[in-house]
## 1
Amino acid sequence: MGAPPQLTPEQRANALAKAKVSRQVRAGLKLRVKNQELSIAQVIQISHNDEAIAKMRVLELVESIPGMGKVRAKALLERLEISLTRRLQGLGRHQVQALERELNLPPATASGKLVVLSGPGGVGKSTVAKALKQSSPFFVSVSATTRAPRFNEIEGVDYHFYSHEKFDQAIARDEFLEWAEFAGNRYGTPRKAVEEALRNGQSVLLEIEITGARQVKEKVPQALLVFLEPPTWEELVSRLEGRGTDSPERRAARLALAQEEMAAASFFDKVLINEEVEKVVATLIELASAQKG
Ligand code: 5GP
């Protein structure tokens, strides 16, 4: 092996930041295994979409199981003929089944936690949702909307962009868990993907406006409603004003709406102030694992 490549200070900082996020992701996952919220099969499922988890050592995961400890974890892997350096991405189907049998973890029907993130437009909900998607096993729902795509939005990633007709049909077929009108457009949460993720034991995040959040609470009383507030009102105003992607009329309408929305925090279970995205993300992960069910 040759000498390691010389990194610029910026590359080094990026690599360190990436490693830090990976460690946090792994720690969050181990906590959920420890709390018996996830089976090994579910962990493997999550690892298919998450590089940090795919590269985690099986030994590290097994050690996190309550009452296991390092010595027993090693002995177990040796008995099951799983190499101590094996990573999750390298486990075969039979090895997964053998681990499941030995560890007697809960079946794959455990229900995940439904978390609703709401708050005034412009407060930074979608930035939090994106960060959560990248740094945790949360399933982040992709909404349907009749709004036209902004220049930087991708179909199926940011939204499913529907015509009015298609949206009407989806309502008639009861395909939405909730839907609402906001600033002249309609937005809805496709029910199927959310229910599937919950059945698989994944925590789910809905990033939606306030009337939708109220509907979710009525339909799923055990959902956790989180209201995101800006650090100051001035900051929210400047963020809405600065949105180059909206027309002046739309910005004015959104500002008026935001004023009404700020008054609605009272029926939420938690209020978080969006001072730092990383902190909000960490709190959401913590809340979801503390309040399963
Ligand atoms: P934007 O047009 O800026 O992407 O979103 C406008 C508002 O609609 C935001 O407050 C966003 O949280 C909300 N929203 C996005 N998807 C949904 C949804 O599926 N249901 C509801 N009720 N609101 C949504």
## 2
Amino acid sequence: MSCATLPLHEVAAFGGCPIRRRLLEGQAAMIRMTRISVTVDGVAYSDEVENRTLLVQYLREQVGKTGTVIGCDTTNCGACTVHLDGRSVKSCTMLAVQADGHEITTIEGLAKDGVLHPMQAAFHDTHALQCGFCTPGMIMSSIDLLGENANPTETEIREGLGGNLCRCTGYQNIVKAVQQVAAGSASTGSPAGASVSTGVSS
Ligand code: FES
Ligand code: FES
């Protein structure tokens, strides 16, 4: 039997096996650590991360920004979207070490002094969510979308949010929220946690 097929706990007995040693060296390289310095939601962090750590893992597990969620891990759903230097990125798509020296904004960094960002307020006003799992990524992508195109058509909004999937809403009210902000008619922000108009008359 080749020593390469042995389970890890038996490797010691094969300490001199060159194949197994190369495999172990490869695993050791994968868990090599690197120190990164980033700014997350306005706060500077300097942390040791494994080279293989995804940005979303770093944000959630080391920085504690659990408002950024993982929906797929395969770059499909957009739930993990954050801003890197002001542009939206899927944080499961890049490594934490690639964010070294950069500024990251998560959904948790949008509200200022307890006042919701206009896009957050618009999602609330238009009831642009149901379960809310896609919402952090949707909001981050929507802000970037309007940064690129302040007055998008409905088609442009739908295309611009093409990388963000929602299993609940059918997208209608998400589009309305973006249109509301684009039109400048979103509420200027409400104290976070306070009652906000739903925009639905009873
Ligand atoms: Fe990143 Fe789905 S978790 S795209
Ligand atoms: Fe449930 Fe979008 S509100 S996935």
